[in-house]
Amino acid sequence: MKVKMILPALTEAISPYFRPIKYSLFPPLGLATLAGYLNEDDQVTIQDEHVEKLDLNDDPDLVVIQVYITSAYRAYELADHYRARGAYVALGGLHVTSLPDEAATHANSVFLGPGEDIWPAFLTDYRQGHPEKVYKSQVRTLVGVPRIRRDLIKRHLYLVPNSIVVSRGCPHVCDFCYKEAFFQGGKSFYTLQVDDALAEINRLPGRHLYFLDDHLFGNPRFAGELFDGMKGMGRLWQAAGTVQSVLRPGLLEKAAESGLRSLFVGFETLSTSNLQEQHKYQNLNRDYHAAIQRLHDLGVMVNGSFVFGMDDDDETVFDRTVEWAIKQGIETATFHILTPYPTTALYERMAQQGRLLHSNWDLYDTRHVVYRPAKLAPEALETGYWRAYRDFYRWSSIFQGAWTKESWSDRLRHMAYAAGWKKFEPAWDMIIKAKRASSMLPVLETILTSFGRHTSQIKGEAMSLKEPITQEI
Cα 381 to the chain's mean position, in Å? Predict the structure, then answer.
């Protein structure tokens, strides 16, 4: 059987206004995971439109397309193309799970929810000649999941080929997040066995890892055992966590000791009212400054996430947020315009209030306003969003943030990481067009280690003398 798996390009990934490096970071791990269920004699290819031009003149038997909201129209175009050529087309992913009736008009089968149970069930039905139209996930477990087909990944096209996922979902429930809709009908957070996770890490070459889990620290027992098992591996790794998990005594220290060097943290807003409205309770009454200080004291850089356009936001929110982030010494920041994704609690609430402006999924990219804000004009929200990026990544802002650090190595690391991410877009563009993204990985590793100086190890003795933070989870 000839199988083709496709990750269509997100609309914003081909925009002339955005550097392509963001979309050349990670390979399509989800598709490579599904490929692990195929038979040895199946012929399978994976194509990621973010990094290569699709070959549309082939004739696969089965085409599998992963669909996100801003790639939906492109995914449907590809699905219709291959169905016209006689292929059997299956669609899955976040957008398909949210709007299965829309997706079903372009597919022979659609998959709702995670694929660990429904994908092998489909393959059995397909081989026997009676596949179903809809497959809905019910069983949630990662026990027995086959090895990821990393041999199908074109490693040289990605800056971070060693991406890894050791859990599914998140233990929290935020109104603007897709998670509850995607995992409806079963558990919405579960992990690999620790030994299986460590075995997958051991199979990855080199030093650098990037955990793509929504919340790697979500199960403290699992995370603690994982970090213990990673000690001595010599890894450098990045991941995502919450303010709550950063403040948990002992867990962050284990992470740093095992190689954590950069953490994506969803601060989202400085407004308590906004946190309550979006049910982001894990951030309520948490000391953001203390969390950032803990990370920096352990030599971990911070990529802060912020969302503009919640109901308590007015025209002052952009300058206040950027000024706060710079003063905290946050190395990089990711800004978003609040976006009500279909079937989320936020979407349903805004639909009931008559605040949605349209359903052009191409614009549901966190860069465009698709609803009526409470205290801002849509134009002011978009303008403020762009201004926040510009102001945070000014050279003067980068220097100001860097000078919150005590040592010169940490200052240099801050400047190199922030400037490298945002100030050298033309260079990134040339590197990616030359298909040499992976050649920059040693540079990333050098920056993550503070130019060879492991800050967390140097400061370890000093940290051991401090009283631990005893904030309850």
Answer: 24
pLDDT tens, position by position, 240-295: 999 999 999 899 999 999 999 999 999 999 999 999 999 898 988 899 999 999 99
Q: Measured in Å, how far apart are the chain's first and last C-alpha atoms?
A: 50
Q: Is the pLDDT of residue 158 over 50?
A: yes
pLDDT score for 472:
27
Token pair of 143 as six digits: 């026990």
Q: What are the residue ranges spanned by the domains of the chain? A: 2-136, 159-460
The b/e string for 343-375 (b: 16+ C-beta within 10 A; e otherwise) is bbbbbeebeeeeeeeeeebebbbbbbbbbebee
The C-alpha atoms of residue 189 and residue 171 are separated, in whole angstroms, by 6
User: What's the CA gap between 306 and 266, in Å, rounded?
Assistant: 7
In three-state secondary structure terms, 45 is strand
Answering whether pTM is above 0.85, one says yes
At 456, is the pLDDT very low, low, confident or very high (cuts 50, 70, 90)? Answer: very low
Partnered with residue 134 across adjacent β-strands are 110
Q: Which CATH class is domain 159-460?
A: alpha beta
Determine which of 135-149, 176-190, 260-274 has the lowest per-residue pLDDT on average: 176-190
Instruction: Judge whether residue 15 has pLDDT over 80.
Output: no
| CA–CA distance, 29 with 435 (Å, rounded to integer) | 19
Residue type, 373: P
In three-state secondary structure terms, 247 is coil
Phi, psi of 299 (to 5 degrees): 80, 25
Do residues 7 and 31 lie in contact, with contact meaning Cβ atoms separated by under 8 Å? yes
Report the phi/psi class of residue 185: left, alpha or beta, with left for phi > 0 and alpha for psi in -120 to 50.
left
Residues facing 260 on adjacent strands: 237
List Cα–Cα distances, 99 to 63, 102, 111, 113, in angstroms.
Answer: 20, 6, 11, 12
Residue 455 token pair: 């800050």
- Could you tell me if 185 and 131 are in contact, meaning their C-beta atoms sit under 8 angstroms apart? no
Angle at 8 between CA 4 and CA 12, to 5 degrees: 170
Look at residues 48, 52, 292, 58 and name the one whose alpha carbon lies nearest to residue 163. Answer: 48
What mean pLDDT is predicted for residues 51-64? 96
DSSP per residue, 300-367: -EEEEEEEE--TT--TTHHHHHHHHHHHTT-SEEEEEE----TTSHHHHHHHHTT-B----GGG-SSS
Domains 2-136 and 159-460 equal at CATH topology level:
no
Q: What count of Cα atoms within 13 Å lies in the side-chain half-sphere of residue 164?
A: 23
Q: Domain 2-136 is classified in which CATH homologous superfamily?
A: Cobalamin-binding domain (3.40.50.280)
